[in-house]
Structures are given as C-alpha cells and as structure tokens.
Write a structure and sequence with these properties.
Elements lengths: L12 E5 L4 H12 L3 E5 L3 H11 L5 E3 L7 H14 L5 E4 L14 H21 L1 H6 L7 E6 L13 H21 L4 E8 L8 H6 L1 H6 L9 H12 L10 E4 L8
Parallel strand pairs: 1-2, 1-4, 2-3, 4-5, 5-6, 6-7
Helix pairs in contact: 1-9, 3-4, 4-6
This protein binds NADP nicotinamide-adenine-dinucleotide phosphate.
Length: 258
C-alpha cells in the first residue's frame, strides 16, 4: 500500500461553490496547495478572479462566477464548467446563505432564499454535472460529491434561523438519498457538518456572543482551515473512496458530546 498517496488529490479536478470567502475559501486554498486543478464559483466575479489570480502561482485556480439561487444559474455554471473540462473528480457544494428573524415575523422570502441556495442548488448542480462526474470515475476511484451541511441541521441552533436549520437537515438527507442513487455509478456523496468557523456568516457570533458560542463547544475553540480542509481531503482522496452517505461532523464535539 502506498500510504503516502492515500490522502493525495494532486491532479484531481475540483469545483468548489461559494469558494470566494469563508469555509469555501479555506477549501480552495487547501485544494490548490494540494495540487488539485481547482475551479471556484460564487456570485462575486471580482472576488473569484482576485482569489484565482492570487493562487495561480501556487497551482491551478480558475474562476467560474455564478448565481446559484436560480435553476438557470446552476445550469449556467454546469455549462461553463463543461466548456473548460471534460470530467469532474470532486464537486464541493459549499455555497450557502442564512436568514435570521424571530418567530412571528420570519419572512417567506427569507425562507425561500435559504432553501433555494442551500438545498435546491446543490441538488440541481449535482444533477447537471452527473455526466462529467461519471466521465473519469471508477470503482477504485469514484467521483466525489461533498455537501457542506451544518451542526444546525442536527442540533436546534441558538439563533432564530428557522429556514437555515431546516435546510441543513435537508442537505444531510439529500446526501444519503443521492448517495444511494449514484452508488452503483462510481460516485460517493458525503456531507461535512461544520460547527463554528469564522466567516461572514458567523461574524455576528464572534462579535456579540463569543463567550457563549465558544463555551458551548466541548473542545473550547472554533474550527480552523486545517480542520475543514483535512476532512475534505480525506473524503476526496483514496482514503475516503469507500465512505458514502456519511455526515461527518467537524465541530469540536458540539453536536455529539453535549
Ligand atoms: N461558518 C460556519 O461556522 C458554518 C458552520 C456550518 C455550516 N456552514 C456552511 O458552510 C458554507 C459556507 O459558509 P460560510 O460560513 O463560509 O459563509 P460565507 O462567508 O457567507 O460564504 C458563503 C459563500 O457562498 C457564496 N454564495 C452565497 N450565495 C450564493 C449564491 N446565490 N450563488 C452562488 N454563491 C453564493 C458567497 O459568495 P457570493 O456572496 O459572492 O455569492 C460565499 O462565497 C455554507 O453552506 C454554510 O451554511 C458554515
């Protein structure tokens, strides 16, 4: 056994949605450093291009901006990818949105926005890309779909983000349902359920509730780029080839140890 190659993604083609900042940016930086040909997508074309340019001296990073809140946007990203490459080894459905409002005034538009970006988009994008995902996949090295779920899809969250927690629960079930549907087609589908990571989405928690949120994490700290990249590399490499339908918590024990 070549243990040194177990976690390698060198030469793999990877598409990361929501790669412009936060957890997605951590993943983009990790996969580029690991030698993957990495495509990054988000609505902000400027941010995608700036990150791709910054990382181009370390490896291959290509910007494919898209708005995944509509079915048309998902289809456009799939066809933009297909114009660039004939196969996709790893799809990371990371783009996400949240909406907080108290029960009683939670708006329908907020609920729809969260569901469209967090649940419909990963489903439609995966469906659109099935052909390129299958193109180079084999039983020994299946194509990988990695969903970014959340501990909020497992535990009732501290904040009034009703659509968000429901959407992440849906992502976890979608992971299993899709995993079953494509298992015989040389593809795995897994989810990572992050706990607390610093990002624009969680900035208000660090600004206003840091003691409370860190105090609720058994390991007593927020997640780091190494924590999320390490798990994604496992799921994307030879090491993770026989794992499918799993929801892997990367949360310092938040969802399971309390
Ligand atoms: N941070 C955490 O502690 C945490 C914990 C659990 C789960 N998560 C999940 O991790 C993922 C990343 O979150 P984050 O914390 O890194 O949030 P973030 O900093 O707000 O980043 C969200 C990313 O998604 C992109 N995005 C948002 N709406 C989009 C749309 N309509 N179309 C395409 N791209 C869109 C954003 O870029 P543009 O705005 O340019 O489009 C950005 O790149 C999400 O799925 C989130 O639910 C985060």
């Amino acid at each position: 056994m070549d243990v040194g190659a177990l976690f390698s993604v060198a030469g793999k083609t990877v598409l990361i949605t929501g790669g412009s900042r936060g957890i997605g940016e951590m993943l983009v930086r990790g996969f580029v450093a690991a030698g993957a040909r990495t495509y990054i997508s988000a609505r902000s074309a400027d941010r995608c291009a700036a990150l791709a340019t910054e990382l181009s001296d370390q490896g291959t990073c290509i910007a494919l901006p898209a708005d995944l809140s509509t079915p048309e946007g998902c289809a456009e990203l799939a066809s933009a990818f297909r114009a660039e490459a004939d196969h996709l080894d790893v799809l990371i459905n990371n783009a996400g949105a949240t909406w907080g409002a108290p029960l009683g005034t939670y708006p329908a538009e907020g609920f729809d926005k969260v569901m469209d970006v967090n649940v419909r988009a990963p489903f439609l994008l995966t469906q659109e890309l099935l052909d390129v995902l299958q193109a180079a996949a084999s039983p020994e090295d299946p194509a990988r779909v990695i969903m970014i779920g959340s501990v909020d899809g497992i535990q009732v969250p501290m904040f009034d983000s009703f659509a968000y927690s429901a959407s992440k629960s849906a992502v976890h079930m979608l992971t299993r349902h899709l995993g079953k549907a494509v298992a015989a087609r040389n593809m795995t589908v897994n989810a990572i359920a992050p706990g607390l990571f610093a990002s624009r989405m969680t900035a208000f928690m660090f600004d206003e509730y840091e003691e409370q949120v860190l105090g609720a994490i058994p390991q007593g700290r927020a997640g780091t780029p190494e924590d999320i990249v390490g798990t994604a590399l496992y799921l994307a490499s030879r090491a993770g080839a026989y794992t499918t339908g799993a929801v892997v918590m990367v949360d310092g024990g938040f969802a399971t140890l309390r």
